[in-house]
Design goal:
DNA polymerase, domain 1; hpI Integrase, Chain A; 3 domains; four-stranded antiparallel beta sheet; three-stranded antiparallel beta sheet; about 45% helix
Length: about 400
């Protein structure tokens, strides 16, 4: 083993500019300008590395030797001392690593993928209401499955969907913490699920109207009001509530409505717009709605902003119906399956669903606009009472 402790304190002070070895990879570099610093040379995983240990004016010979031995011991254990020191610096510079702080940081990093940058609070709310009040101050590295189990147990069965969302967000937060270099248990949420057991909650789908009954309901929307017209266009297009409520007049070009990508649920590529073919009946409804246009929006609220989803739902509720506006998407999808020969991928595209595997979608460069145009025209004929009982056939 190379000799250690070659230098004396007197030599360290007296030597002129140059590089002087103290042994074991520890070197003293003295510069022409009078400055000097300690450098440790190491071989880490077969690579030569150098670590600065500080200026001579700040670090004595004794302190430099102690530091050098600490880092050499780490190399002997198979670790990279340079990366370890960088990790410690990051930890020291980072705010306290509580679950709340890491959750907020994770939320910030995901905002670009969330609708409206997450301003509605739907992503963070399950954590804010059901997890952070009890666990927010717990260091994320100390969080274990028993903590999570005790926190979510009161809502695990009673509010199963909310509990599921909270657990999902927790899993994302733990992965974020791991990406920051923190020593967390990435299996902690799965372990907590095992302790909590299978939820007894039965998922209830949004009630939908049988497609055979849609024409009768559609004809009942006879008043030229914002609510009636919005519901009619919702039924005719099969879109979700939000893009319909935020429909702008300038999104319509001829008989095509282009929904901006940021308004589409379930699309990771928020720059990808979606084209909706408009039937003759849909265009007629849009013309009836144009006098209500305010601020560019076709369906404004009576106060400010746009019509709410609850407004359309309350209309159906007042009529004693259990179905809700979103359910008309199911009505349309069932009609496509039972009364048309539309291929699966075309029918799914009508509902703006992403169909097929990643590879299949990469090679499929079409949105089936022309086939959907035929289907939506026949759907409009059905709901207006013009095409009852007819089977739609698409050209192959």
């Amino acid at each position: 083993m190379p000799a250690l402790n070659k230098l004396s304190a007197v030599e360290v002070r007296a030597k002129g500019p140059g590089k002087y070895s103290d042994g074991g990879g520890l070197w003293l570099h003295k510069r022409e300008d009078g400055g000097a610093q300690w450098v440790l040379r190491l071989t880490v995983h077969g690579r030569r590395r150098e670590m600065g240990l500080g200026r001579l004016s700040d670090v004595s010979l004794k302190e430099a030797r102690a530091q050098a031995e600490k880092w050499r011991a780490m190399v002997r254990d198979g670790q990279d001392p340079i990366k370890e020191r960088e990790r410690r610096k990051r930890d020291a510079a980072r705010p306290e690593n509580t679950l709340r702080n890491i959750a907020l940081d994770a939320f910030e990093s995901r905002k670009a993928d969330l609708k409206g940058d997450g301003a509605a609070g739907r992503w963070f709310t399950p954590l804010e209401l059901h997890v952070l009040p009890k666990l927010g101050k717990v260091p994320v590295e100390q969080l274990d499955q028993q903590d999570i189990k005790n926190t979510l147990a009161p809502i695990w069965h009673a509010k199963a969907d909310t509990a599921r969302k909270a657990m999902n967000r927790l899993n994302i937060v733990m992965k974020h913490a791991a990406a920051l270099g923190l020593n967390v248990d990435l299996q902690v949420t799965e372990k907590a699920k095992a302790l909590l057991g299978t939820t007894r909650h039965v998922v209830k789908n949004i009630p939908s109207m049988p497609w055979q009954e849609v024409p009768t309901f559609y004809r009942s929307l006879e008043d030229p009001t914002v609510t009636h017209l919005a519901l009619r266009l919702l039924i005719l297009t099969g879109v979700r509530s939000r893009p319909l409520r935020y429909l702008r007049v300038d999104e319509i070009d001829g008989d095509v409505w282009t929904v901006p990508g940021e308004g589409m649920k379930g699309r990771k590529d928020k720059t990808e717009d979606f084209r909706v073919p408009l039937s003759a009946e849909a265009l007629a409804v849009i013309e009836l709605a144009k006098p209500f246009e305010r601020g560019g929006y076709l369906f404004p609220s009576s106060r400010k902003g746009v019509i709410s989803d609850a407004t359309m739902a309350r209309l159906m509720e007042r009529r004693g119906l259990s179905e809700r506006p979103h359910g008309f998407r199911s009505s349309l999808r069932t009609w496509l399956a039972e009364a048309t020969d539309a291929p699966h991928e075309v029918a799914e595209t009508v509902l703006q669903h992403v169909a097929g595997t990643t590879v299949q979608r990469a090679y499929r460069r079409t949105d089936y606009l022309e086939q959907r145009r035929v289907l939506m025209e026949r759907w409009a004929q059905l709901v207006t009472g013009e095409g009852a009982g007819q089977v739609v056939q698409l050209a192959r």
